[in-house]
Amino acid sequence: MARPILxxxxxxxxxxxxxxGLFAEMAPGVEVRWWxxxxxxxxxxxxxxxxxxxxxxxxxxPNLRVIFGSGAGVDFIASDPDLPRHVPLVRxxxxxAAQRMGEFVTWAVLSLLKGARRIGIAQSERRWxxxxxxxxxxxxxxxxxxxxxMGEAAARMLQGIGxxxxxxxxxxxxxxxVRSFVGEAERDAFLAxxxxxxxxxxxxxxxxxxxxxxxxxxxxxxxxxxxxxRGSQQRVEDILAALDSGRLSGAVLDVFEQEPLPADHPxxxxxxxxxxxxxxxxxxxxxxxxxxxxxxxxxxxxEALPNTYDHSRGY
Length: 315
Ligand code: NDP
Ligand code: OXD
Prior knowledge:
Bound molecules: NADPH dihydro-nicotinamide-adenine-dinucleotide phosphate, oxalic acid
Structural class: alpha/beta
Strand order of the largest sheet: 8-7-6-9-10-11-12
Helix content: 25-40%
Number of helices: 9
Largest sheet: 7 strands, parallel
Number of domains: 2
CATH topology of the largest domain: Rossmann fold
Radius of gyration: 21 Å
CATH superfamily of the largest domain: NAD(P)-binding Rossmann-like Domain
Shape: elongated
Strand content: 15-25%
């Protein structure tokens, strides 16, 4: 009997030998084929692993059982107007992804605290620019917007090195030592208590352009900003203006509305801004394949799948 097909569009065609090798070992019951392989019968496709399918493509797979997002955020899949909504859409919420995100956020927070951008500029100019960072971790409250899988991991790591952490989410959280703020009503109080703001929200209509002048104006003067959510959540021109005015003392942006960020974008050269190329947390293919293989086996046994996209919440 023919094996069910897992169609892969993650990392491009060049990544296929690696995916095929990994799944041959971890899920020998499925046949792994490239997304644009013309020899694939759409009716034989049971699973897909994808980040950004062309709109309408998933609807053409009549026997699709599970859509595996190749990232934790599945907004580029969920935005397909023809998405087959009855098919579970699973987010790549592995422990390793949360660990990597926690590490990245900790690096970004410490970079702002210690003036990493200033140090980097001085080094590139061979200039001995001695200065003393003003604050230490216990004096710097980190406000995390989005206390989900990633936000919680970041909170735990930051607490481990002495940062007070508060969080903002849609529903109340009970995380040890983390004061929980909820919804619009508590947002201003959350912002006023935050010294470095970390955005780990999903891309939804509510979070679009949330990181713009009105919100930045609610932060204490000289606050720091880190966006590791999505580029659609920020207005870069407002962030640059806030850096120029001193409203923000520094920022780290990992995500942008247009990626790659165009070479002539003013963000690249701003002396208070660290730009990183959307690399905060992407587990290696071996980890993602192991996760998908485990979930395919669970699905075939009739078990419920974890971390599925909720169409009513939009994340
Ligand atoms: P989760 O779904 O686990 O968590 C999302 C959090 O955001 C939840 O706490 C949720 O609240 C909160 N939230 C959602 N909408 C609102 C809102 N309108 N107001 C307040 N809080 C809200 O997602 P993950 O933690 O796994 O990932 C978060 C995002 O991080 C992803 O969607 C992706 O965009 C981004 N990401 C970026 C990466 C990178 O490399 N830069 C890598 C991985 C992820 P509640 O808990 O109450 O539901
Ligand atoms: C993700 C990402 O959502 O890498 O996993 O942005």
